[in-house]
Amino acid sequence: MARHERWVMLTTLVLLQVVTIVTGVYAVDNDLTLSALTRQPPPAEPTAPPEVPVVTAGPVLAGLAARPGDGPLPTKGTLTRRLTDALGDRALGDRVGAVVVDASTGERVFAANPDAGIVPASTTKVVTSVAALASLGPDTRLATRVVQGGAPGAIVLVGGGDPLLAGPRAKPGSFTDQASMTTLAARTAAALKQRGVAKVTLSYDASLFTGPDVGPGWKPGYIPDGHVARVHALAIDEGRQNPGQNSPRVADPSRHAADAFAGLLKKKGITVAKTVEPARAPAGAAELAKVESAPVYALVEHALTYSDNDLSEALARHVAIKEGQPGSFAGVAKAVPQVLQRVGAGGGIQVYDGSGLSTRNRISAGAMAGLIALAVSPDRPGLHAVASGMPIAGFTGTLGNGRRFTGADSKGQVGLVRAKTGTLNNVSTLAGLTTSKDGRVLAFAFMADKVPVYAEPVLDRLAAIVARA
């Protein structure tokens, strides 16, 4: 495949990315924490949501079908020599795993320390995303609901585990599928007025997620520094005090969301009792109103492109619940490997959270590269959002921040690599896919967790070597 043809193919994918991925904001540590997604203003009065066709993730990667025989494999001797030389860079430290596989067949083209469990940082989100797509399905949406309480005039706000639920101060934008607390309040008020109810007591139910709301292996500064919120099933603006990247996280995301909802109801002419407390929604309670998130495939794309910690934690918990486990960190640790085993992924993956903030996570380079190859298989269209969600070198997300693929040994591969980044203290990882110069789709994983210095340029160089193979 000629170089200009590869450029056309990947430029097309960039345009698809613009269409399918919402705008995010770069932040430090573990790659990203994200401000609330943008959205269009809600209608002045609540209306029934329009009937729209369900769009699956299937066609997103039509141009990336990996067909056996789609060009010869790179010469192993040459690729091995170049990668081995680059892996000797002192910036990577003395604990590195590296694997390159042919996405069509799963054959290893290169391997160095392939089975060692490495702290993966944010490349954990690849694992979370595969599990979410395989378990929940690409078209599933997360619903936030309001139901009748157990007493006359009582209503319950029920968290559905959607951290991207937009609060009342979220700025209007272009992402039409984002659920909005303002819309939920408008629909609730309309339903109450239709029933002749103008005064209510409000409680909130965030029991969908259980257990500790801070992950095992998380550093104490992650929440105060704004890299992630406490994990609650009810939250607005990803648990931020105000929409926006640099806003501090609130101490209690569920109460913060419920208080905001009470204020919105009041603006719609509903009197709300002063006390708003947590409570379980009655079993089988009648639903008054609901709003739904974007489909899971779009959430996965967003989580990967912008390395969204909060969204990844929520998706992991939904996987745990779907697989019959508690919606907790412990449930995630049991459910995610269960799903991976079901889809045919091998061992070498141990996770304790969904975002990769946990320093207890361990993933081998062989397992990571194999999982990416699985996700881009033409036989697995439901997993293709993993590939379409990966940042594009020099263009999007954590690879489009002006710092990546800028070296003399990697800038020529801008636009030719899609990969998930990972960064923690002394940890630097990069895992993704590219096409060889002859058009062969290759998946790779480069992972190091004893990094003494800034190592991202070396990882970019490694990925560029694969793209030039």
UniProtKB/TrEMBL annotation:
UniProt keyword annotations, A-Z: Carboxypeptidase, Hydrolase, Protease
SUPFAM superfamilies: beta-lactamase/transpeptidase-like
E.C. number: 3.4.16.4
Transmembrane feature ranges: none
Keyword hit for Protease: yes
GO molecular-function term, one example from the UniProt record: serine-type D-Ala-D-Ala carboxypeptidase activity
A Pfam family per the record: Peptidase_S13
Signal peptide segment: none
Entries under InterPro entries matching the protein: Beta-lactam/transpept-like, Peptidase_S13
Annotated family: Belongs to the peptidase S13 family.
Record-linked PANTHER family: D-ALANYL-D-ALANINE CARBOXYPEPTIDASE (PTHR30023), PENICILLIN-SENSITIVE CARBOXYPEPTIDASE A (PTHR30023:SF0)
Protein name, entry field: D-alanyl-D-alanine carboxypeptidase/D-alanyl-D-alanine-endopeptidase
Organism of origin: Nonomuraea ferruginea
Lineage: Bacteria, Bacillati, Actinomycetota, Actinomycetes, Streptosporangiales
